[in-house]
UniProtKB/TrEMBL annotation:
Species whose genome carries this gene: Paenibacillus phytohabitans
Keyword Iron: yes
Domain called Radical SAM core: residue spans: 172-401
Lineage per the UniProt record: Bacteria, Bacillati, Bacillota, Bacilli, Bacillales
Nucleotide-binding found in the keyword field: no
Pfam families: Radical_SAM (PF04055)
Name of the protein: Radical SAM protein
Domain of life of the organism encoding this protein: Bacteria
Length: 425
């Protein structure tokens, strides 16, 4: 398992002698053989600016940083793969903040690149290589011509063509899960927000947030255009918007209008679920699926990252319980980070949270963040750090009826039938 590093021009090399190391939180650790899988199709290798890679002398066990001028290398994994370790590095400029991506440890082994990762879900639908950019361009052209006054299609065309967002691309391809952003405002100040950052944060948002409030007509057009098969999904709450439930009135009226015309497919919301009364109204209007974003089931950690405005983690729990009680298929979008999510106290709290709220699915999502900034922000570990692979094993053992995945899933048949009963009530 040899060290992988890059030179100042971005050329990637494998070291002839030193073994590759990784990080778990702020600790340099050895990579275990059972943690490694071949570099997945669709993954990208990137250099980490202002860093030095750290390797290990296999003879002495000594940890050695490479000379200045080289830099550590990380892998950006496609959706569906849970990273188990961070790249092994030290920063040469302590003030520099890495761009908002989820960097994974990578090594050279048996003539190829390997990463420390777990294949957590079926990646077929979300593999970027299965999204033909030419077909997306045709879809954009067709739908913007069909609905020239609909600002949502114009907004989503930028997401699909410039950012190559797969969910917005699906909107133009008429398949799987499609995007319906609705909100330019948010009731949280997430530290790692990908659509809006304070001027003094030191981070650059990789996306631009929408800057208008769509009409019910615009939202309904996008929903009806997409909901044409039993498995189709439309989703409020995208990376290009704020918190969708702040626009609950638009969502409620749009769901009611759409469900008066068709019962096809599923309506989903990706939300922080902090506005419990708003979520109740959206659920009662006919919501089918709800995915709640969280980073922890511990208040101090949750609050440090999300900086909630006018709500608490207790409100999130209340929303999840109500949605589940009304037959909504609930999941969490779990933002995970090696050395933090796998802390003993974090695992115990999350297992109990899932049990209390009757969550059906945990979607593992690699947190896109500068590691040092995140670790400075959150409370220190209270118990043992068990490792990400052990964490996944505990979840699967302690929560046998909960699906461990990475994406929104179409509910099982019995829940799908329950959804049809709700629509026709």
């Amino acid at each position: 398992m040899y060290l992988v590093y890059a030179d100042g021009q971005g050329n990637v090399y494998d070291h002839p002698e030193l073994y590759g190391l990784a990080r778990s939180g702020d600790m340099i650790v050895e990579i275990l053989e059972e943690e490694l899988i071949p570099l997945p199709e669709g993954a990208t290798l990137v250099g980490l600016p202002n860093t030095r890679a750290i390797g290990m002398d296999p003879g002495t066990g000594e940890m050695l940083p490479l000379p200045l001028g080289s830099q550590a290398v990380g892998a950006l994994l496609p959706q569906g793969f849970t990273r188990l370790c961070l790249p092994g590095y030290v920063k040469t400029d302590k003030t520099y903040k890495l761009p908002l991506f989820g960097y994974s440890a990578v090594v050279w082994k048996d003539g190829g690149f390997y990463v420390a990762a777990d294949p957590t879900d079926d990646t077929e639908q979300w593999n970027p290589l299965n999204c033909d950019r030419g077909d997306v361009e045709i879809g954009v052209s067709d739908l913007t011509a069909k609905y020239p006054e609909n600002r949502l299609y114009n907004h989503l065309s930028n997401c699909a063509l410039e950012y190559e967002c797969l969910t917005s691309s699906n909107t133009f391809l008429g398949r799987w899960e499609g995007a319906v952003p609705v909100s330019y405002s948010c009731n949280a100040g997430c530290f790692g927000c990908i659509s809006e950052q304070p001027d003094d944060s030191g981070f650059v948002s990789p996306q631009t947030r929408m800057n208008f409030r769509p009409t019910v007509s615009e939202v309904s057009q996008v929903m009806l255009e997409h909901l044409k098969t039993p498995e189709s999904i439309v989703s409020f709450g995208q990376g290009c918007e704020g918190e969708p439930s702040t626009q609950a009135k638009i969502i409620i009226e749009s769901i009611r209008e759409v469900r008066s015309i068709t019962d096809m497919g599923y309506i989903n919301i990706n939300t922080n679920a902090g506005l419990s009364d708003h979520i109740r109204g959206i659920v009662d209007a006919g919501l089918d699926l709800m995915r709640v974003s969280t980073i922890s089931a511990l208040d101090d950690h949750y609050n440090a990252y999300y900086k909630p405005r006018g709500y608490t983690l207790a409100n999130v729990e209340k929303s999840l319980k109500y949605a589940a009680s009304q037959g909504v298929y609930t999941s969490i979008n779990y933002l995970i980070f090696p050395g933090v999510t796998d802390r003993e106290e974090e695992i115990e709290a999350m297992v109990e949270f899932v049990r209390r709220t009757d969550i059906k699915l945990i979607q593992m999502r690699n947190l896109n963040i500068d590691p040092e900034s995140y670790l400075e922000l959150i409370p220190p570990a209270q118990g043992e750090i068990l490792g990400m692979k052990t964490m996944l094993e505990i979840f699967r053992e302690e929560l046998p009826d909960v699906v461990i995945g990475s994406f929104t899933h179409v509910p099982p048949a019995e829940l799908a039938r329950a959804k049809q009963r709700r629509v026709h009530q």
